[in-house]
Amino acid sequence: VLGGGQEAMDVTTSSTKQGKFEAKFYHLVFEEEFARVKGHFGPINNVRF
């Protein structure tokens, strides 16, 4: 899982579309992106499957 975002001081002045707030899922062996969750806002502390 890869989480995107931006500097904390810039977060309050941008929308979720501008800030690259998304979580990306990559295949461990093939290193290809297979899923993306947009609109994620804040740190990724855990992932449960």
TrEMBL record:
Superkingdom is Eukaryota
Q: Which GO terms describe its biological process?
A: cytoplasmic translational initiation
User: What's one GO-annotated cellular component?
Assistant: eukaryotic translation initiation factor 3 complex, eIF3m
Q: Which keywords does UniProt give here?
A: Initiation factor, Protein biosynthesis, Repeat, WD repeat
Instruction: Tell me a Gene Ontology molecular-function term this record carries.
Output: translation initiation factor activity
Q: What is this protein called?
A: Eukaryotic translation initiation factor 3 subunit I
What is the native source organism of this protein? Endeis australis
